[in-house]
Amino acid sequence: MDRMVMIITVTAIMITATTIMRAMTIITRTIMVTAGMTMIITTVIPMLMTINERDQDGVESGAEESAALFRLMTWLSPSFPVGSFSYSSGIEWAVEAGDIKDRATLQGWLAAMLLEGAGFCDGLFLCHAWRAAEAGDGGTLGAIAELAAAFTPSRERHLETTAQGRAFVEIARSAWNCEALDLLSAHVTGPITYPVAVGVLAAGHRISLSSTLHAFLHATTSNWISAGVRLIPLGQTDSQHVLAALESAIAATAEKSLQGSLDDLGSATFRADLASMRHETQYTRLFRS
Q: With 60 as the cut, is the pLDDT of residue 150 above it?
């Protein structure tokens, strides 16, 4: 032979970490050496590889992450039949009284409810119910459920949270039953509030606390905005502006709830509490609270 051809193949694997998936790229370099000429051919082959690794809240990534997202979207969807659309948490009276009259006043009212009122309190109850259910601590779960049912400022607010909680548990038992719901029924004989029910079911299906809490607060805020849109009224574009503006308040409420203890329970939204009380005797009403 006049010329000698030598082919050398070098393969390298590069792994880049992401939250849910791990992107794997295989790089193949083929070096062809001939008399008087060297040619390098590089081939890049992208691949996706699922790493079965648990996050800090106890949920595995990959398939389980997808299942968790599916369930949260289902349970906290406006179409999930717990009747959330029929409650306004006192917003109806606030609109009639003139406290809420446009996009800006609705946004301010809801930001206060999130950070200093029902949003934070419900978030805190959800967190502690999730942790008690995840630990299988029925005694603590029973105490949390009892406190949550008592921690409502008005008759209508109590109806709102316990009626939704009861409906949520009944539907969950029919379609999404788990051991955590058995623990709940074994240690709670009184009314079950909505955030406690959501927290217990999420823990029973091993869905992360952080994801559950953020989804719950988002759904709650969206329902409040929906009530405001119908009552003020507002356009759909305005409703999205309000929801976008409240993103930081929702995140701050979630962080506050995750870090808080039951000793931190308390509400400073006196006007909102009065609104839920006065709604009981409001002459014309579209909502149940």
A: yes
